[in-house]
Specification:
Elements lengths: L1 E5 L5 E7 L2 H4 L5 H15 L58 H17 L3 E4 L9 H10 L7 E5 L4 H7 L5 E5 L5 H6 L2 E5 L3 H8 L2
Parallel strand pairs: 1-3, 3-6, 4-5, 4-6
Antiparallel strand pairs: 1-2
Helix pairs in contact: 2-3, 4-5
């Protein structure tokens, strides 16, 4: 699959990048994508939620009324969840939401996500560039040249570039990652995927194992 390589001004450099069919041209597996995204979001959860149950409420332990003859349901404790101020019944407890996912499934999910973006023509291959310093204004100009100023975009670098990363950090709809940080969730969450030319080899190498 051939894709034109653009420069940071949004102009065609005249070169073509060859995207591997084994990574960008497979039949997408929707369930694998679902599982990988589900795991990513589950891992973001702290799981520290907690409510007090009847055994943790401060209050009297005396029986609040006699067992029989009141015409209402029997009740033994003011701390019961049926009374105002009582403990919560079946409330949340601290727990770990993470779950295991096979490496092959995760690899298939990323390939599927990349193939979906390729099918939608949402992948842009950008010539490698760097900035003299952290300058959001210059990065915003790059977005404008690529027609992405009003779209959620994910930039994938071949290697860490602090100036490019810091220049994008204040922009709400844009994220910059390296090819080793690429995840199915981030791919699917972006409207456009901008791959630096130097990231292609690393992406294909990581997903071809």
């Amino acid at each position: 699959m051939k894709v034109a390589v653009l420069d940071k001004n949004g102009k065609d450099t005249g070169r073509k990048a060859d995207l591997s069919k084994d990574v960008f041209g497979i039949e997408p597996n929707n369930h694998a994508v679902y599982l990988d995204v589900k795991q990513y979001l589950a891992n973001q959860r702290q799981g520290t939620h907690k409510s007090k149950e009847r055994g943790e409420i401060t209050g009297s332990t005396r029986k609040i009324k006699k067992q029989k003859g009141t015409g209402t349901a029997r009740a033994g404790s003011i701390k019961s969840g049926v009374f105002k101020g009582g403990g919560r019944m079946f409330g949340p407890r601290p727990r770990n939401y993470s779950f295991k996912l096979n490496k092959n499934v995760k690899r298939l999910a990323r390939k599927s996500a990349l193939s979906m973006k390729a099918n939608d023509k949402s992948i842009v291959v950008l010539e490698d560039f760097t900035l003299d310093g952290p300058k959001t204004k210059e990065f915003t100009a790059v977005l404008k040249n690529l027609g992405l100023e009003n779209k959620k975009s994910l930039f994938v670098l071949g290697e860490s570039n602090n100036n490019v990363y810091l220049s994008s950090r204040n922009l709400k709809g844009t994220e910059v990652v390296t090819n080793s940080e690429l995840s199915t969730y981030k791919i699917m969450n972006a409207n456009s995927l901008v791959l630096f030319e130097g990231s292609l080899e690393g992406i294909e190498e990581n997903l071809s194992k």
